[in-house]
Amino acid sequence: QIFNQHNAEAPNLEQAFQRMAQMEPNLDHDVSWFLLPSYWAKMVVALISFVCFANSYDGDFVFDDSEAIINNKDLRAETPLGDLWYHDFWGSKLSSNTSHKSYRPLTVLTFRINYLFAGGFYPVGFHVINIILHCTISVLMVDVFSILLGGLQFTNKGRRLNLAPKSSLLAALLFAVHPVHTECVAGIVGRADLLCALFFLLSFLGYCKAFRENKEGHTFSVFWVLMSVILGAIAMLCKEQGITILGLNAVFDALVINKINLLELIRKLLYKDKSLENSGLLRKGLLFRITLLMCGGASILYIRWRIMGTGPPAFTEVDNPASFADNLFVRAINYNYYYSLNAWLLLCPWWLCFDWSMGCIPLIKSVSDWRIIALAALWFCLIGLICQALCSEDSHKRRILSLGLGFLIIPFLPASNLFFRVGFVIAERVIYLPSIGYCILFTYGFSLLSKQAKKKKILAVAVLGILLINVMRCALRSSQWRSEEQLFRSALSVCPLNAKVHYNVGKNLADKGNQSAAIKYYREAVRLNPKYVHAMNNLGNILKERNELHEAEELLSLAVQIQPDFAAAWMNLGIVQNSLRRFEEAEQSYWTAIKHRKKYPDCYYNLGRLYADLNRHIDALNAWRNATVLKPEHSLAWNNMIILLDNTGNLAQAEAVGREALELIPNDHSLMFSLANVLGKSQKYKESEALFLKAIKANPNAASYHGNLAVLYHRWGNLDLAKKHYEVSLKLDPMAPGTKENYNLLRRKLEQLQKKGG
Questions:
Q1: Of 189, 452, 660, 732, whose CB is crowded by the most CB atoms within 10 A?
Q2: Rounded to whole angstroms, how far apart are CA atoms 417 and 419?
Q3: Exposed (0-12), middle (13-18) or buried (19+): which is 708, by Cβ within 10 Å?
């Protein structure tokens, strides 16, 4: 409701506004809750939201953070800033067939700024920004909820009145401490949802400012309407859901600013009631504002579509099995079941999981499945709320329920599978914005209970208990997000049928060197999903390292049979075939891998090793050269080139390659060592000595470094230093090949010299 006052001389205008506001139905009349000044309410919300997630500040990069941040070249200074506008969230070109089309350049830009300020991949700065963003959003929620629950009213000075201070505080606290938000706050990739929510709310508040009376006396400001469209566009550049704020602004305008009764409007439209002409919609500018919002939204979507390309993102059946079901009925039933699970996560956020795909939620294929009850319960509640929102005679009730349902449903639509296929079954992060609607409905329900309850304090204590439980759940869940081990293991009890959970636990164990335990989880992942090629590939790799070559070959062969373009599996199959001395098959596997991934330096490196084993030296050198062209910092490829040229007597060529390699990777001690050996053989003793010493300084516990330096001194005639480094080498590795023999030769030579000297 808007009041415009033109008589600036009227006394006590602000008190008059307060009295007029109190004549309207007000949630706070019935809510038994704390009444705090606006400043203190925001301080309390900020503090509690900080307490919930503070323990995530020193967490690691976990789960999707690796791909979106560590492996994302768009964060590095050498990548032009302009590339961010043509790449997806993961750093791939939007035009690529493998791109997920998630276009979030502003989020990636904030990651890049984090990276530059931190001077590298240090997660603390990333986590701190996420926590600050959530606290800021929670504080903004106090203002947003005061409008949604109490209405929009201004004084003659343009100050907005908070007509529901108690209700807005409760709703903001519910939002701030909701455990389902943990993924967005504690997971760095959740930055996209946080930034989107920030500009989403700013767009809404900007739209509300459009109705503050200006000096010219106009009923609304076109500038602020356009500003809300711009802020909505910024929200969408952070995450796709941001565009939905334009629809919500239109709903807010119709319900709050114009006080439209939707049911009455539908009746008039159906019966072509002439009173529509005098309804004031055109006079109040509603149609004009909605036209601005629609034109702005259409323009944003068109530009987004042109940048993204006309093709939809490519997802697989394991990402979203229901969307691949042939039967329309099965698809519809399962989509609705997913909606009911999302609703349950809002109501009871106890079972939380980082990933809900790969068998975590088996498909409903028959109406006899008991889970159909969840669908019925969801639609029973939704239809009941919609009927009340449309048919209630209480305009205040209609407004709050309509806004609650609007904020619950509209931001969720991009994740609903209704317009396009999404790459997940359930994702807790996408409920961040819809939880606003849940908080509105919860607070309204609490006000109704308070109105009926005789002992209001008991009800208030119960709500305080819910908030406290949620705070503790947030803290616990945040601690689980601090490391991959805790995160993945926490999912085992929630989604024991999820093959990806077992895969990630296995991968984490393998990275820590616990191969035996990793094998167990990889095998379970393959059992749960017999087509899980990544689990087969990783299991095959471990079995290869344990010299269980035949089983490794079976797994990798099956993986490439299921997914013929799986380049990594083809390369690993080639390595196994090479170990089994089936060289022709290994060569063919390597070339197949390169065919499916043109820029594959590791595959060229392994192909070079195969050619070296077959004494095809020129082919080996060419393969390793290709590896270094694709990846100039590929130390192993450079080293193998130097060693092969050294062993074949091409010392000048070996020296040239070594110097080229050290220019590109100046601090690589293994390259220093290889080049030092070549220089020593070329009798460039001084330069060779300097490189050996530099390599030893970088890696003082390498027995071979000391042993080969000792050989250099031995040749050079510096026998005392040779003796010293032989002894250091033997101390580090008593079984070092050749070192003991060389040391004994040196000792005999020193003894002979002593006898001659005596």
A1: 189
A2: 6
A3: buried
Burial class (CB in 10 A: 0-12, 13-18, 19+), 298: exposed
**Cα–Cα dist 600/572, whole Å:** 13
d(CA 307, CA 312) in angstroms, rounded, equals 12
Give the Cα separation of 229 and 294 in Å (integer): 9
- Whole-number pLDDT of residue 276: 57
Q: 388 phi and psi, to 5 degrees?
A: -65, -40
φ, ψ of residue 93 in degrees (nearest 5): -65, 135
Give a yes or no: residue 469 inside a domain.
no
Mean pLDDT by 10 residues, the chain (758 residues): 40 47 60 82 96 94 92 89 89 79 92 91 94 97 94 81 90 96 95 97 94 62 93 95 94 88 74 59 74 93 80 75 88 94 94 88 90 94 92 87 95 90 89 96 92 84 94 95 93 91 94 93 94 95 94 95 94 95 95 94 96 94 96 95 94 94 93 93 91 92 90 86 89 84 84 71
Q: How many CA atoms lie within 13 A of 9 on its CB side?
A: 0
DSSP string, 244-281: HHHHHHHHHIIIIIS---HHHHHHHHHTT-GGGGGSST
Report the alpha-carbon distance of residue 623 to residue 602 in Å, rounded: 10
Q: What 3-state class would DSSP assign to 174?
A: helix
What is the Cα–Cα distance from 488 to 353, expressed in whole angstroms?
A: 9
Strand-pair partners of 87: 93
In the block, tokens 């009746």 appear at 267
Domain-embedded: residue 414: no
Number of domains making up the chain: 1
| Residue written as token pair 């669908």 | 375
Please report which helix (H) or strand (E) contains residue 721, including its range: helix 719-732
Q: Looking at the domain assignment, is residue 296 inside a domain? A: yes
Which alpha helices (DSSP H) does 481-563 contain, by range? Answer: 484-494, 499-511, 515-528, 533-545, 549-562
- pLDDT value at position 287? 87
Write down the pTM of the prediction. 0.85
As a residue count, the chain comes to 758
**Residue among 721, 651, 638, 642 nearest 680 (CA):** 651
Alpha carbons 460 and 554: distance in angstroms, whole number:
63
Which DSSP category does 727 fall into?
Answer: H
Query: Distance of CA 176 to CAs 162, 170, 180, 185, 245, Å?
Result: 19, 10, 10, 11, 20
- HEC letters along 13-73: HHHHHHHHHHHCCCHHHCCCCCCCCHHHHHHHHHHHHHHHHHHHCCCCCCCCHHHHHHCCH
Residue 752 placed within a domain: no
Give me the domain span that covers residue 271. Answer: 30-308
E strand or H helix at 127 = helix 123-150
Note the pLDDT of residue 267: 74
Structure tokens, 606: 């392994």
If 0-12 CB within 10 Å is exposed, 13-18 middle and 19+ buried, where does residue 517 land?
middle
Q: In one letter, which amino acid is 720?
A: D
Tokens of 315: 């997802």
- Alpha helix locations (H) across 580-737? 583-596, 601-613, 617-630, 635-647, 651-664, 669-681, 685-698, 703-716, 719-732
Take residue 1 and report the two structure tokens written for it: 């409701």
Q: Using CB atoms within 10 A of its CB, is residue 418 exposed (0-12), middle (13-18) or buried (19+)?
A: exposed
